[in-house]
Structure formats: C-alpha cells, structure tokens
Amino acid sequence: MNAIHTNPERLERFLTEIAAFGATANGGVTRLALSDEDRDARDRLREWFEEAGCETRIDRMGNMFFIRPGRNRALAPVMTGSHCDSQPQGGRFDGILGIIGGLEAVCALNDAGVTLERDLIVVNWTNEEGSRFTPGTTGSGVFAGKLDREAMYGLTDRDGLTFGAELERIGYKGGDDFDPRPLHANFEYHIEQGPVLERRGKTIGVPKGIVCLRWYDVEIQGVPNHAGPTPMDERQDAIYAFSRMAGRVFDIGLASDGVVATVGEVHPSPNSRNVIAGHVHFTIDIRGWDETETDRVCEEIEAAIRANAEATGCTVEIRQTWAVERAPFHPELVSLIHEVAGELDLPALDMVSGASHDTVYINQFAPSAMIFVPSIGGRSHAEVEETSWADCAAGADVLLNCILKTANDPESVTYAAPE
C-alpha cells in the first residue's frame, strides 16, 4: 500500500487549540495531572475523537482509550498515544503530541476512506509526568500490572489532596477496567526532549529503548539556629550539608559512563534568611542505559550523601521511591519505523531515549517502539519547548504509515520480543 499523509494544517490547529488548556503567559503549559486544566483538555480530546468516529472507554485510573473500529475486531489491536498532563510551566508538545498525532492519524485514515483490518486505539495515559503525584507513568503502570491501583489512589500532592479523590472530582474515574490485550503493536510518538536530532540534522529519531530510572527522596536533619550568634564551627547546617551532597551528585554523574544524575527539587526549612536551616528535603533522578553502571552510580551517590552528612554533623535518610528497568524496544518495529521514514524520504537516526515514557511499561507486555522528532535547542519541560510544525507533521506521517502497515497485518503476523 502506498504511503498516505496527514494534514499539517489540521495537526497544527489541534495542537494550538489544546495548548490553550493551562496556557502560560510565556507560551508554555501548566496542565498538572487531575487538575481542572487536565479535565478540560480531556473533555476536548473526547469531543474530537468522537467526532472522528471513535468509541471512548475510560478505566478506573482515568486512562482514556479512543477506539477506531477495524474490519475484524477479533484481531489484536494496534495502539498509540501518550499523555496529556504537563510539568509546571512546561511545554506544549511534551506528551500531547503523541495523542494529537494519533488523532490526526484517525482523521487522515477517514479522509482516505481507509478501514483498517484491526482496531486502532489512541490512549491518553493518566499522570505520566509525576510532577503532582509521584511516581509518574501511574496510569500505564497500573494498566501493566506493575503499580498497585489502590496504592496509587492514596498518593498525595503538596496540598494533601489524594490521587483517587481528585480523579473522582474531575469526573474521570471510570467504573470498570478496559483491557484490549493482547496488543499487536504499540507506538508512542514524542518529541526528543534533547539536542541530538537537531545537532545531527535528522528529522526522525528511532530509539532502541528507554533508559532505566531510579528516583530518590533525601531528608537531611541538622539543627536550626540564629544566623548571627552561632559560630561557623559550631553549626549543623542542613543547607551546607545539602550543597556538598548536590555537588557530589553532579560530579559522580559527570564521571560515569553514560549515566546522568540530577537534583531536581529542594525544600529547605524554615527557609528564612536569618535562620540556619535545620532540615532540607531534596530529590535525585538517576538514569542510564547500562543498568549495572547506573546501579553503581546509585551506590556511590548514596555513600557520598552519608559521608557528607557525617562530616557536617547532620543525619540523613535516603529513600529510593521509584525504580524502573530499561526498556529495549521490539527490533522489528524499530526496523519498520526506519523503513517508513525511508519511504517518506525523512532522515532518521538510531538513538536511546534518556526520558522515561509510558511505553516503559507497555513495552513489558506488548511489542512497542517510539518515534521522535527534534526539540529546538534541546529544550523540554520548560515554556520555551518548541518543535517546528514541519517536524510535527513529518513525525505524524511516520506514525500514520506505521499504523497503516501494522493494523493491516494478517492474523498470522506477530512481532518478536526484544533481546
């Protein structure tokens, strides 16, 4: 079957209109999971997909499944999609591009009068970002059976609001579960969120998988005291201890073999200019493709944190709050993305995803792969996040034609598991 194309103007309109939900003054988006802005964007997505002829199913985690019926509904479906939630003051392409790319694929198939052999499902996974409720990739993790649903309902945000109550409040707690497994193939279309594609002059990124991830929460306990009368050599300053620890986290990551280590959140207490801090809470995000090297970095960082706590007269508690194995993608689907990009005369590049995505869980039970397009300046999780409309359309074309090929596979075709 010859390649078909998406409608770039319609894709741009969809992306522009959905960015209004949670829009910030500087061109970004704040659309935290289960917020009013998330609810309103979900409502609009449902409206668009149903106008395009899709059925809607919502499970008990608020995951939204938009189903375009195929000719033979007994066959395993093809799935695509991503997430609607954003970081605080985040970008307008992260996550949502994968859902809108799926919507545009549905519309382009309708335009072409194509009925696929298999059902096509476009999904909006709940709370991928983990910025309001931690851990992230919550909806896909529960769907995959890797996270406990009741435990996730009990997650709280900084205001003490629970995931379960907020899911009910916005009206997206489904009454039952939807399970379309087995899946024939799963694709996630996403911005790269890094500088590699732009620097290499490539339009399509074809990751071989997603790096492993480790999250830590660290509590430093010192002694709060007056900033004036307390001699420097008699202080148990939690901020000083933190500064030493943060420097070691960076240095250990810098010296590693391909592992990145990031201090993200920092919360000192009492956070007053003339008080020596008695407590600091901070987080660490550690990622790498090589799990052995990543875990070695984790051990070195944990040891450095304890050593610096002792050296500064403080105590410390280190908790690993999330650990996800790396996700190697299915080689036949990775090859298919290369093949489709070649047919569309789009330069493609093999790479690894340094960011985590919902596919890290879906890949554990379904043949999966991802399609990347460039992030201008390598910036993401920020209001300046940008991808050109031409690249958005190019990636959507690759997604559409990967769907077209896999969703028309006969029943006899299956995809081999990754090595």
Overview of this protein structure:
The protein has 2 domains: 8-210 and 326-406, Zn peptidases (Aminopeptidase, 3-Layer(aba) Sandwich), CATH 3.40.630.10; 212-324, 2-Layer Sandwich (Alpha-Beta Plaits), CATH 3.30.70. With 419 residues, it is α/β, with parallel strands linked by helices. It has helices at 8-18, 36-51, 96-112, 138-143, 149-153, 163-169, 196-200, 238-255, 291-311, 331-343, 359-362, 389-406; strands spanning 55-58, 64-68, 78-83, 120-125, 185-191, 204-210, 212-221, 225-226, 260-269, 275-276, 279-288, 315-324, 327-328, 348-353, 368-373. Helix 8 (238-255) packs antiparallel against helix 9 and helix 10 crosses helix 12 (389-406). Strand 1 and strand 2 (64-68) form a beta hairpin. Strands 1-2-4-3-5-15 form a 6-stranded mixed sheet. It has a 4-stranded antiparallel sheet with strand order 9-11-7-12, covered by helices on one side. A 3-stranded mixed sheet has the order 13-6-14. Helices cover 34% and strands 22% of the residues.
Secondary structure tally, helices: 12
Label the structural class.
alpha/beta
Query: Which outline best applies?
Result: elongated
Can you summarize the main beta sheet? Answer: 6 strands, mixed
- The number of strands is 15
CATH superfamily of the largest domain: Zn peptidases
- In angstroms, what separates the terminal alpha carbons? 30 Å
Instruction: Determine the strand fraction and express it as a percent band.
Output: 15-25%
Order of helices and strands: HHEEEHEHHHEHEEEHEEEHEEHEHEH
Average per-residue pLDDT, rounded, comes to: 97
CATH class of the largest domain: Alpha Beta
CATH fold annotation of the largest domain: Aminopeptidase
Number of domains: 2
Radius of gyration: 23 Å
Please estimate the helix content. 25-40%
